[in-house]
Amino acid sequence: MRLVASALQLAVAIGLGARSAQAKSCYVARIPNGGNVPSVPAIGHTDGTGRSSATNVFGKAFYSAGKAWTKALCMADSDGDGQTNGQELGDPCCEWNVTTNNVVRWTVGVSHPSDATKISDPSLWANIQCSTGTT
User: Fold this and answer.
1) Percentages of the chain per state (helix, strand, coil), in multiples of 5
2) How far apart, in whole angstroms, are the C-alpha atoms of residue 70 and residue 59?
3) Domain assignments of the chain as residue spans, ordered by start
4) Which of 26, 57, 63, 83 could be 87's S-S partner, Cβ–Cβ 3.0 to 4.6 Å?
């Protein structure tokens, strides 16, 4: 009986772990280059891995934005390093959309939007003309 209970507890724990990992990949997919920030698989978490449920300033902003990439989140500078979240994540014009336009301007050279010691190279967007929306 004890073996059956232990096996059941293990199955539940594995199921919850898989569910948690699935949710994380869902959030990564909702952010441009969410999975391309060097050495940081979970950019919204303080530990950078997602093992901790504690969120950093970008994670809190993402949560406040309804767990979606919005123009306001894109234009914000979550870490105060002088670059917008969009510039750091390859979406300097805030055009990326998870369902209608999931193409980013670049995938190499992105930086962490919650780490002020890491910035993207401004030459990546120096020659990009962003539409103001008023044509």
Assistant:
1) 35, 5, 60
2) 13
3) 2-124
4) 83
Instruction: Look up the pTM and report it.
Output: 0.80
Provide the sign of the torsion angle of the four alpha carbons 59, 88, 18, 23, taken in this order: positive
Interval 78-127: pLDDT, tens: 999 999 999 999 999 999 999 999 999 999 999 999 999 999 999 999 99
7 pLDDT above the threshold of 60: no
What secondary structure does DSSP assign to 31-69, as a single string? STTTT-STT-S-TTBTTSSSSS--B-HHHHHHHHTTSS-
Q: Pull the structure tokens for residue 61.
A: 């902003």
DSSP annotation of 78: T
Give the burial class of 2: count Cβ atoms within 10 A of its Cβ; 0-12 exposed, 13-18 middle, 19 or more buried: exposed
What is the predicted pLDDT for the residue at 133? 59
What type of residue is 59? G
Q: Report yes or no: 74 and 84 within 8 Å, Cβ to Cβ.
A: yes
